[in-house]
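Supplementary Text 2. Reproducibility record for the structural model of the 446-residue chain.

All settings were left at their defaults, and a single model was retained for analysis rather than an ensemble. We include the record here because the model underlies the residue-level annotations in Supplementary Table 4.
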Amino acid sequence: MNSYDLYVKTPPLKLFLLVSVPGSISMLAGSLWGLFDGIFVGQLLGETAFAALNLAFPLVFINFSLADLIGVGSSVPISIALGRKQKQEAGNYFSCALLLIWLTGIFMGMMLYLSAPYLISLMGAEGELADMATKYLQLYALFSPLTTIVFALDNFLRISGKIKTSMALNIVMSVLILGLEYFCLAVLKMDIGGSAIAVSVGMIICAFVALWQFRGGRLPLCFGRPQFTPELIKQIVANGSPVFLSNVSGRLVSILMNVVLLSVGGQAAVSIYGILLYAGDILQQLMYGACDSAQPAIGYNWGAGQLGRVKSLLACSMAAGAVISLGGMVLMLLAPAQVVLLFIKPEDIHLLEPAVYALRLFSFTFLTRWFSFVVQGLFVALEKPLPAAVLSVGNACVLPVLLLAVLWPLGLDGLWLNMPITSALVAVLAAVMLFRLGASLSTTQN
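Retained model, structure tokens:
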């Protein structure tokens, strides 16, 4: 089945299952390398290395987010163009996006490598902690031109109808990184730099495998001479901004939180915060896989004028997001110690009790997180970047910073409660925006 027939002619529920199940497995598999990274570093290298990883990784993630901006920003017009059967226009967006990601990777890699010592010191890190974090960041920066493209290629494979290929590639990437991490840290006894090298090499191998799929014009998207226009760049940036702003502002808030945590609770508090982020990221990636996988389908049907199918796909996304999010919250409440023990060495057992307490508070984030997540994805798929950006920035930056000041008298409890309260407030805002969108569509139809 070609991609147009898959996305526009398959019954909505069947279509959602066809794209969301592999998408969830794909994103879960693709995120496991980050989970294994934290587990290996925490278990084999100890608390200081784990804290260093959590100080440096927000900066690494910001670099990845620039590639994601271009990948997501181009995926939306590509899906809509293919829905309108404008294959040449879709191919040009694809070619331009790949070149932009490569150039951005070179520039950001150079900037991060040169500024790493200064950026880490700004966070308040000193001595061994600062040295480890700087080395970790600089090694990622060196590989940046070849690693950042892997995330966009995953989007492009799914748009082309290669959903199972995308899933298989993400599984292979995590297994490959897992093996390389074990080899570097457990066999070669490398320091934290071994973790950065293992992850980067695994990504590079999978990026080349993904690029190979687009050779010879066998897929709806194929390489061509990029034809840049101001409108094309503006559209990519506008459509990718909500996801980019969410990722970047979220990581900037993580950096701010790490600075506060270092001053309030020391290195142990930074490690606990890292455990919360790793636990939350697994659920986030499952939701992202289920709901983001539906975005090409929504874009195709929006481009084809099939509003009823768009509504059906949205309902499926809501149900899937709720099940994943609430299920994860229950798991965190029932088995917090088992989650925490994944990331700490036996000699760091003093972290167990405070981390379990923090994880239980943090789990209530997922009581409401699913709703705003799905609504934000809908706005992105419909090329409505402004409301999507408001939701993403509100959730990732504006409200967390405001609540940081409001909850300051509660000390560490205020920091752990920051994300649950933020999530609830953003869900209310998302409900208002979704109601207004529905009202405007009804008016247009009438």
